[in-house]
From TrEMBL:
Classification via Pfam families: Pyr_redox_2 (PF07992)
Keywords: FAD, Flavoprotein, NAD, Oxidoreductase
Record GO terms (molecular function): NADH dehydrogenase (quinone) (non-electrogenic) activity
Organism phylogeny: Bacteria, Bacillati, Cyanobacteriota, Cyanophyceae, Nostocales
Catalytic activity: a quinone + NADH + H(+) = a quinol + NAD(+)
Enzyme class: oxidoreductase
Domain of life: Bacteria
Stretches assigned to the FAD/NAD(P)-binding domain: 5-319
Family note: Belongs to the NADH dehydrogenase family.
Protein name: NADH:ubiquinone reductase (non-electrogenic)
Length: 431
């Protein structure tokens, strides 16, 4: 009997967990990912703020799947899908599938704010975080040479938009970097001119957490030197300023946008039905309407009956459910709905400061901080990565110095994009 072919697009938390659940099963799996590595997204902010080296929060996908003989991997960005004929195009080669799992994650959402897309930095990928690191350090280099005070203040004003988990973590770590480490690197700069602002349109930070934890978070950020500005909706971003709904204008050279996420524009092009947030609408079994052989999982999926947070545990559980449902379909059984188990949420703010909400337990301060470190270290793939990260954390903790204060030029990667795929003749078409 011909083996059924499952194609998985995206090897983030959702795609990788689906691939693993299909590992050594009777089907043939083709995993396609834009990069040849899996990114541990929850540590991106620490790369962006000079705490961790980029290599230490990613892991080779080939290494992760090498024990599964039925999984093949291709590094490529999928641009074309023909759902009607069950074909995807990878680097110009057409590949047929029996089942498809879409796990391409999300992109930043700018809510139509003029200039936000053009003039903001985002934190969604490893290259984004290296970009931010380069940009932050470059601002200090320029500010050091600037004699005009107003220009210097503009260079040294760092605005983070969005008071959700990513915005809070980024703001806390940035303030720690600036006032703890960079103040020693630039002894001639007047650090009273530096501002780290966290703008949030709502009444409290971390709106998904209990109010007590939101209030604690705001207090801790103020102590670190972050100006937390609530009820501050951004209405425009230019190269040199942020404009707010209440007519305030903040002159600044740096805007880091963490205010929202949405599905990729490609989803509509592929003929998928999306919601207002541009996520693919799926049934509780994670199947895409009208295409029972197609599943959407992780950040890009929107369940028709309930809203789930866009976090890694949801993506992992959805990936496993989609894989199990495909195995059921192959056996002629009905797919099962997702039974999501909420494992709680946690956010790190700074040294000995974090919040955690797990079941009925609400933790703040040192216990939450320690728990955050332990869980993130345990979940990071690769023992060598864990060792590197532990050493870097120890370095920052004991020496109060962020070790990776380097500006790297990023050469174009275009030359790598059309590399012929060595094993395509084996994955193209069916025997
Ligand atoms: C800065 C930041 C911090 C976060 N911190 C936490 C946290 O502490 N805890 C938590 O639970 N969640 C956290 N999240 C959310 C969590 O990272 C996401 O919910 C999770 O990554 C979603 O998993 P996913 O598999 O859907 O997408 P992703 O992990 O984003 O993976 C998508 C993959 O698809 C690939 N891809 C995309 N398009 C294509 C294409 N066309 N062709 C081929 N490949 C493609 C991408 O390269 C990527 O590898 C954080 C998110 C961010 C941005």
């Amino acid at each position: 009997m011909t083996r059924q072919r499952v194609v998985i697009i995206g090897a983030g938390f959702a795609g990788l967990s689906a691939a693993r659940a299909l590992g050594n099963s009777p089907c043939e799996v083709l995993l396609v990912n834009r990069e040849n590595y899996h990114t541990f997204v929850p540590l991106l902010h620490q790369v962006a703020t000079c705490g961790l080296a980029p290599e230490h929060i990613v892991y080779s996908i080939r290494n992760l799947i090498k024990k599964y003989s039925n999984i093949k991997f291709v590094t490529s960005e999928v641009d074309k899908i023909d759902l009607g004929n069950k074909i995807i195009e990878v680097n110009g080669v057409l590949i047929t599938y029996d089942y498809l799992i879409l796990a391409c994650g999300s992109t930043s959402r700018f809510f139509g704010v003029p200039g936000a897309y053009e003039h903001s930095l985002t934190l969604k990928s490893l290259s984004n975080s290296v970009n931010i690191r380069n940009h932050l350090l470059h601002c200090f280099e320029v500010a050091q040479e600037e004699v005009r005070v107003s220009r210097q203040q503009q260079q040294l004003t760092f605005t983070i938009v969005g008071g959700g988990a990513t915005g809070v973590e980024m703001a806390g770590e940035l303030a720690t970097l600036v006032y703890g480490t960079l103040s020693k690197d630039y002894p001639n700069l007047d650090f009273r001119r530096v501002r780290v602002l966290l703008l949030h349109s709502g009444e409290r930070l971390l709106p998904d957490m209990p109010t007590r934890l939101s209030n604690y978070t705001a207090r801790q950020l103020w102590q670190l030197g972050v100006e937390v500005q609530l009820n501050s909706r951004v209405t425009g971003v230019t190269e040199n300023a942020v404009h707010l709904e209440d007519s305030r204008v903040i002159p600044c050279h740096t805007v880091i946008w963490t205010a929202g996420v949405e599905g990729d524009n490609k989803l509509n092009k592929w003929g998928l039905l999306t919601n207002r947030n541009n996520q693919v609408k799926v049934f509780s079994t994670l199947q895409v309407p009208e295409h029972p052989q197609v599943y959407a999982v992780g950040d890009l999926a929107a369940l028709h009956d309930k809203q789930l947070p866009m976090v890694a545990p949801v993506a992992i559980q959805q990936g496993i459910t989609a894989a199990n449902n495909i195995l059921r379909q192959i056996k002629g059984k009905n797919p099962q709905p997702l039974h999501y188990q909420h494992q709680g949420s946690m956010v790190i703010i700074g040294r000995h400061a974090a919040v955690a909400h797990i079941g009925k337990v609400k933790l703040t301060g040192f216990p939450a901080w320690l728990l955050w470190l332990v869980i993130h270290l345990a979940c990071l793939p690769g023992n060598l990565n864990r060792l590197h990260v532990l050493i870097s954390w120890g370095w920052i903790y004991f020496l109060r110095e962020h070790p990776i204060r380097l500006i790297f030029r990023q050469d174009s990667l275009a030359k790598y994009q059309d590399v012929p795929l060595p094993n395509l003749d084996r994955v193209q078409g069916k025997d």
